[in-house]
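Help!! Second protein's tokens look totally different from the first
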Amino acid sequence: MASRLKKAGAVTAAGALAIALIGGYEGLRLKSYPDIVGVWTACYGETRGIKPGMAFTKAECDIKLANALVEFETGMRACLKQPDAIPIKPYIAYLSLSYNVGTGAFCKSTVARKANAADYRGACDALLAFNKAGGKVANGLVKRRAAERKFCLEGL
């Protein structure tokens, strides 16, 4: 399946934008830590295979993020009817959500449903609903979703 983040193995301008934006939202932590709901996390929000006491270099974290974004992009694209028709900023905002909540949750979301109906503005607005961690509204997620929505709408 095609990627808008990488072409012929090289990171595209869209890929560089996604890495900067999503990496900024996630924040960089070089040592593993329990997140707001107690899941062990490191680097730019990576949770898979992360255990207490792990440490990484920035270069290792950068590679993990770039690879994870392409992986999550593949999953996101699989549930979008016309992913290449989506303007790039909304596309990256949807990818940010997919990376943060998981492909399964993204694919079942109102964001994906509205994007599939070509209601990109409605999909941007629906990002705001994903503001909870462990069932409770998290201020950091409220701010992140507002920023994602703003970025998303700028691309329309």
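Here's the second one for comparison:
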Amino acid sequence: MKTKVLYLLLLFSYLNARTVENELGINMGTTSINNDSGARFNNYGMGINYQLDKYVVMPRFDLDYVKISDFSDNSVDSLFKGSINGVYEFENRTDLKPYIMGGSGYEKVSGEIDNSFESHPFVQGGMGLRYKLKQGYKAQVEGKMLQIIGGKSENNEVILNFGMSFPIRYIV
């Protein structure tokens, strides 16, 4: 009898549990770092992010790598960026959802040059579109503008990414 009662309690607690869904995303894209005479997207990169989906403004943690190929000094090799962002999805009744995002982070320059191309914190903002696929998977395209804080000659970066996000579900 005790076993049946315990079994029923576990069953009802499982049925009453909420499933929370977060997202793990991967992306590829291109970055323009020399924007004085217009954007030139010659630097390619990739990234990974993790987004918590249970909030109105959803926290997203990004790690990105960009291979630098259009800087005048060949000693600058790549950028490693880590950032924390807030993402707000606009509600609509379609599978295509626009969103805006903003946040801050730090950019580590591999092969940095003093007073020319250095590691610095940054702020960024952007917008994108997500298309909901089956079973919680999403395809997305995103554009961002990144502003370096405290740099002497580096000003901003323009970033275009496309990628996928995969649902991560767990029971609360």
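Reply: Different proteins will give different token patterns, so don't panic. The radius of gyration is 21 Å.
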